[in-house]
Amino acid sequence: MPSIVRSALVFAMIVACLAPGYAMSEEESPPDEREAVEAPQVDKSSAIHLLRDAAGYFDELAQLPESTWIGRDQESANDDINKLIEEAIQVLEIPELTEYRNDYRSIEQRIREENDQVSELKEKRLLAPEEDAGALTRWTPTTTLKNFTASTRGDYDILIEAHQGNVESYQQSLEALRDTMSAKLAELGSDMSADQLELWMTSAIGDDVITMRVVFNSIRDVTEDLAELTSESGENLEFAKRYYGMVVILHKLIVHMQETFVDRVNNSVLPQLSEFRDEADTIIADARQLMKSSRNPAGLEQSIEANRLTVRTIDLYERIVTSQRDKVQDALRLSRHEEKEAIVNYRTVSLSSAVSSLINDGLDTFEALSNLQMPDTVEFQNAEIREEFRKLTGRIERGQ
Question: How far is CA 182 from CA 96, 101, 174, 185, 200, in A?
Answer without folding.
Answer: 13, 12, 12, 5, 12
